DNA sequence: TGGATTCTAAACAGCA
DNA sequence: ATGCTGTTTAGAATCC
């Protein structure tokens, strides 16, 4: 068991997440990996407009316009991303990250595919107007990605069609790492908010 | 440049 | 019959 293995088991412990853990006091690993901290800080929902000035307006205007609307393109890496505001920007998260967040954000850590859709829709309004193919991509990810596992329904459980999906614990660190690699992972936004003068984006995608 | 990963589209089967 | 879910395949784009 070397240090790499340790970090893989608890990628937060040796990262800057450790600071969050200290700041938040009694948070244990489950609470962190469950993204409850994310909910508490409300980062996905409400980065205030003031923090971003008028950039949001400008950046939407900066997108190339096409007949019938804006081109669906990933949010530019040099502009802070607010999913509730930048509804024309494709979220800079992979579908596996979106699914991961949705499942981890659920009380039972398991969701039917329909609730995964709903979570994504409510947290990333971009998809409300996106072509419906994204749902196919979600199902494709659930089906193909080893990180996600179907859960047997309990006896008599009636939640409608389909299976419940959960995160395979063996692959959870991989998903967390993938999430950390995205430039607008809530961690980076937290850093920006808590220590704006010391933040360095060097090494992050789009920051050279 | 090539492999790995991710996204998108599509076809199909099973089920309620 | 219809719509949803899950699986699979294929091709394009992107990243390393």
TrEMBL record:
Record's GO cellular component terms: nucleus
Entry keywords, A to Z: DNA-binding, Nucleus, Transcription, Transcription regulation
Molecular functions per Gene Ontology: cis-regulatory region sequence-specific DNA binding; DNA-binding transcription factor activity
Q: Which SUPFAM superfamilies match?
A: Winged helix' DNA-binding domain
The keyword Nucleus is assigned to this record: yes
- The residues that make up the annotated DNA-binding region are 90-177
Whether Nucleus counts among this entry's keywords is: yes
PROSITE patterns reported in the protein's UniProt record:
FORK_HEAD_2, FORK_HEAD_3
Cite the SMART domains for this sequence.
FH (SM00339)
Q: Which residues form the Fork-head domain?
A: 90-177
Q: Which InterPro entries match?
A: FH_FOXN3, Fork_head_dom, FOXN2/3-like, TF_fork_head_CS_2, WH-like_DNA-bd_sf, WH_DNA-bd_sf
As for subcellular location, the record says: Nucleus
Primary site of residence:
nucleus
The secretion signal range is: none
* Function comment: Acts as a transcriptional repressor. May be involved in DNA damage-inducible cell cycle arrests (checkpoints).
Task: From the Swiss-Prot or TrEMBL record, give the protein name.
Answer: Forkhead box protein N3
Instruction: Give the organism the record lists.
Output: Lottia gigantea
């Amino acid at each position: 068991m070397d240090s790499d293995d340790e970090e893989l088991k608890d990628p937060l412990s040796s990262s800057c997440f450790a600071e969050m853990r200290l700041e938040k006091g009694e948070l244990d690993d489950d609470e962190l990996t469950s993204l409850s901290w994310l909910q508490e800080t409300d980062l996905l929902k409400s980065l205030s407009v003031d923090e971003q000035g008028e950039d949001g307006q400008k950046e939407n205007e900066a997108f190339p316009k096409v007949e019938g609307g804006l081109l669906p393109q990933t949010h530019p890496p040099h502009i802070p991303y607010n999913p509730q505001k930048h509804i024309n920007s494709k979220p800079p998260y992979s579908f596996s990250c979106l699914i991961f967040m949705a499942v981890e954000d659920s009380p039972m850590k398991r969701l039917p595919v329909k609730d995964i859709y709903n979570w994504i829709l409510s947290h990333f309004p971009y998809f409300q107007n996106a072509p419906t193919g994204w749902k196919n991509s979600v199902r494709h990810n659930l089906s193909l990605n080893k990180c996600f596992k179907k859960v047997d329904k309990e006896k008599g459980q009636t939640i409608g069609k389909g299976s419940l999906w959960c995160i395979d614990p063996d692959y959870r660190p991989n998903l967390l790492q993938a999430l950390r690699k995205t430039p607008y992972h809530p961690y980076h936004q937290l850093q920006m908010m808590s220590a704006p003068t010391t933040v360095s984006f060097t090494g992050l995608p789009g920051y050279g």
